[in-house]
């Protein structure tokens, strides 16, 4: 059978991409084998080590080749490749081509692999004794990651998903009739395009940062496994500490970028929604923070080595588990931005299980060699409280992970664990109630382990007390000395920041009317964290910035807690509808305001607002955006007149393929943000978004038989039958004309009924209609013809264009800048701590 010659395809790039993928997989496998064999040989003359480096260089070259090839076909819009067609389009701005590169699972795995390569070459450059085990472990991870791109079948099981598969070969397109045509590409006018939620500059910088954070967790993990493999069970910790804090800084930055993206570009109504995908990135960061601090304990005191291994290994395993959660499709019903299942769930489980089994095996093998603590830590020692802090982080992670994993338990049918976890949950919640004297409702898991109905309330109930404990521990921790601390001396140092924090917290709580006990406790804990670490910088460190990295990072953490507490607990919806119109259950009147274009100004909070109108984006890549101009006025206290203060421009991004997307607009002040988004807008007439004036909306054509009813904006339209003998004289028709009327009953909201009759006329060879106008209802009706096949009358309905209106929601987030300032300080402080740690390692 003669094969089809497809026109316009560029198969050479697919073949090149497949070659690079195979080369990357083989290079990683050979590198891993060579590095592990080289462990037993002398570093000075080690041919296996050289082979490992060469193989890893080949692997690195191949990864770069995959990246270059995939980006090239995306840039040139080669829609014969399914990945390109599915994620890009001609109208996509160049800056978002990077975003569609890693929007798909294949691209995100590739991004992850790129960062592993970059980090590994920093280790290879050092050429020390840790290169062999560390790069060897990373190479095994690369074997798994590149296998996710193979897209081949092994014993009937599909291994990975190929980013270079042709559109006509993809299973989703198998039933498309045009695929078998040689010129099928000429029928593809454009690609599906990037998800409108992701068409934001944060999508360009957030995923690379987040995946660098994920990639950075493999380095401490590789050092830990390397120590177990080489039998150097404690020596690995010193070189791993800077890497651990680097991971804390980068992964934390990625998480915070995600929060900023959600706040600025998504209609979450805030910066954090406890979405499962958000949780999946937060949990490894928390355990990595614990691991980094436990490493410091061991370096200074030689204690907690088992805990160091546990937290370090657990961090990497949780990254893999997060990958499984977000890419298996299991969170599809509970998360707004989880990936769909590409059939790699089993592969991801094997990936995760391999490192769990390997880690457990190496720990058991070396269990007798692991050093035991000669003495237990004193409660007055810094290491004791750092260890307690790590345990608190672990409890936080366990709760988040369990609640996020409920869909997994539900799918696997683990119903019998319900009563156990319900009992445990009730015990701890009851304990928290006693400690904090709150009225928190007891956690009750339903028997089907369904996710919580209100995720924010559920997670906040658990995490708020944990945040209080963490804030206090961070405040008191640095005033302890390693090994032992004089209690009187410690109390003397901590008393001043404690009293100042109590006074300031009480004053702020009074000013902001924070009258809930748990809110006051979190406010005090965050204030204590900030003031105590600032006091430590001044009195102990003498404001030596190079030594103050930890304190600055802790101050940043305290500001984050305070910013989260105040901006959320005191956020206020200021948009209230005061008209006599009920906006319906989807748009509660106490949270939404209706604005008529060009109408009167509406009082809202401290402002008066009006809706000026909407405009389209002017650039070809921006024409899908509708910008709604909301004018904010303030009353002049002297003249009493309204004066323009500022404009906001919330956006509705039009997308016929994936659904329209709402983007908020925010006015930022030093002490508050005014966050505004469109709740509802009539988009039926978006072609007139240039504000052109037309009398009627687009006509609607309906075929009707006797008894059919249509609901219009102001009335019900009921077709009662055909009038075969209308009054021609009254209609001023000729006797030779053939006429018929469509008898229509109109029932308005007052249940008033009226009969109207648009007329269809046949005059010679011409067919025309006599429409009916009902000005009081803003309706024009035509009866142009009868469908001869089914006997139905064709009715054309035109409704007058009413005054354009929108429904809008506005929220004030007070003091949210404390959150963003805290984020910057935490990042800066961690960078300073890494820099200092690297200097100390060289001594």
Q: Which features characterize this protein?
A:
single chain, 843 residues, alpha+beta, six-stranded antiparallel β-sheet
Describe this structure in words.
It is flat and about 110 Å long. The termini are far apart. Helix 11 packs antiparallel against helix 12 (345-365). The strands form five sheets. Strands 5, 6, 7, 8, 9 and 10 form a six-stranded antiparallel β-sheet that branches. Strands 14, 15, 16, 17, 18 and 19 form a six-stranded antiparallel β-sheet that branches. Strands 3, 4, 11, 12 and 23 form a five-stranded antiparallel β-sheet that branches. It has 20 helices and 23 strands. With 843 residues, it is an alpha+beta fold.
Topology overview:
Blueprint: H1 11-38, H2 47-75, H3 82-87, H4 97-101, H5 105-126, H6 131-147, E1 152-154, E2 157-159, H7 201-216, H8 218-230, H9 237-265, H10 276-301, H11 305-327, H12 345-365, H13 382-404, H14 406-412, H15 418-436, H16 455-477, H17 487-512, H18 517-539, H19 549-569, E3 572-573, E4 593-596, E5 602-604, E6 607-616, E7 625-635, E8 642-648, E9 651-653, E10 661-663, E11 665-668, E12 672-681, E13 700-704, E14 709-711, E15 715-723, E16 738-748, E17 753-756, E18 759-763, E19 766-770, E20 772-774, E21 779-786, E22 793-799, E23 805-814, H20 817-842
Antiparallel strand pairs: 1-2, 3-23, 4-23, 5-6, 6-7, 7-8, 7-9, 9-10, 11-12, 12-23, 13-22, 14-15, 15-16, 16-17, 16-18, 18-19, 20-21, 21-22
Helix pairs in contact: 1-2, 1-6, 2-5, 5-6, 5-7, 6-8, 7-9, 8-9, 8-11, 9-10, 9-20, 10-11, 10-13, 11-12, 13-16, 16-18, 16-19, 17-18, 18-19, 19-20
